[in-house]
């Protein structure tokens, strides 16, 4: 079902409805809708997801309490290299945004160690994170099983098994964006260190344009707008926030697994002029040494494999060696000549 969003128009954005999928609907219709949304937008909102509100509000409150602390306190959390507390710097290659964040690996040992540097009550914080991660992981698995069914993949667990493994490399992130007026920051003591507002606009970028490298991302945010997704024709669609629901994003690895039938969604977050936005993302990824290649079902003589096989560790290394907005998938594409060659091989008598 495509529900029209409110008709908001800003420069270079487009007023379009984003897909809203009711997870309580009949399964055969549900899997069709999930596949369609992944093909058309690489993005959709899920309603009737069954995640208890209390699990979301507990981690939401822990996050809000952390970001409300003085900067000197927040800096006691280990710096995000890549895991820990980050402010304005995104990744290792000079990307900057108007935000602060906590980035955590979802391994329980890593969480319990990291939480000791984040708060005086690490047990409470880590319980809230672990409970949230648990429900987010289940939701991702459910969606990946619907995708596998919808694509008629013989084993409906072949995608969800990628992230169920105990060695999985999934991440959890909480982003906190200050509200910013056109002249610069109103509510933030670190504004002086950030990018200068030459075009009256650069301060509005909270998290610059990119796709997520992983398989699937589950995003929750408070009721403050900011998230925008890019359509295939390059226009930006503002996503109306909804703190009762989740948003799902196709990541680069799902694009590879489906041999390009799904495309990872390019997205960004802009700061709000009035309110502070907080978002939480679960980035679902396989274990580092697992091989990624298009699923056999998605490869035919007419649709030869578009990507060379690689491990998740190799892909991550590529992502971390590039800038946020760079197109890392290009590095793993099969050359066109090779594709034609394999097409002829498949057709030779
Ligand atoms: C600039 C970068 C930050 C990032 C790693 C990268 O080199 C390129 C991908 C970025 C991204 C985007 C989605 C997630 O927020 C993230 C955690 C991820 O896995 O890839 C970030 C990385 C990061 O902030 O460390
Ligand atoms: O904060 C948001 O709404 C989006 C953040 C995001 O895309 C990311 O952290 O990868
Ligand atoms: Fe993202």
Automatic annotation (TrEMBL):
<comment type="pathway">
    <text>Plant hormone biosynthesis; gibberellin biosynthesis.</text>
</comment>
<feature type="domain" description="Fe2OG dioxygenase">
    <location>
        <begin position="167"/>
        <end position="286"/>
    </location>
</feature>
<comment type="pathway">
    <text>Hormone biosynthesis.</text>
</comment>
<dbReference type="GO" id="GO:0009685">
    <property type="term" value="P:gibberellin metabolic process"/>
</dbReference>
<dbReference type="InterPro" id="IPR027443">
    <property type="entry name" value="IPNS-like_sf"/>
</dbReference>
<comment type="similarity">
    <text>Belongs to the iron/ascorbate-dependent oxidoreductase family. GA2OX subfamily.</text>
</comment>
<dbReference type="Pfam" id="PF03171">
    <property type="entry name" value="2OG-FeII_Oxy"/>
</dbReference>
<dbReference type="GO" id="GO:0045543">
    <property type="term" value="F:gibberellin 2-beta-dioxygenase activity"/>
</dbReference>
<feature type="compositionally biased region" description="Basic and acidic residues">
    <location>
        <begin position="189"/>
        <end position="199"/>
    </location>
</feature>
<keyword id="KW-0560">Oxidoreductase</keyword>
<dbReference type="Pfam" id="PF14226">
    <property type="entry name" value="DIOX_N"/>
</dbReference>
<keyword id="KW-0223">Dioxygenase</keyword>
<keyword id="KW-0408">Iron</keyword>
<dbReference type="InterPro" id="IPR044861">
    <property type="entry name" value="IPNS-like_FE2OG_OXY"/>
</dbReference>
<dbReference type="InterPro" id="IPR026992">
    <property type="entry name" value="DIOX_N"/>
</dbReference>
<dbReference type="InterPro" id="IPR005123">
    <property type="entry name" value="Oxoglu/Fe-dep_dioxygenase_dom"/>
</dbReference>
<feature type="region of interest" description="Disordered">
    <location>
        <begin position="185"/>
        <end position="206"/>
    </location>
</feature>
<protein>
    <recommendedName>
        <fullName>gibberellin 2beta-dioxygenase</fullName>
        <ecNumber>1.14.11.13</ecNumber>
    </recommendedName>
</protein>
<dbReference type="InterPro" id="IPR050231">
    <property type="entry name" value="Iron_ascorbate_oxido_reductase"/>
</dbReference>
<keyword id="KW-0479">Metal-binding</keyword>
<dbReference type="GO" id="GO:0046872">
    <property type="term" value="F:metal ion binding"/>
</dbReference>
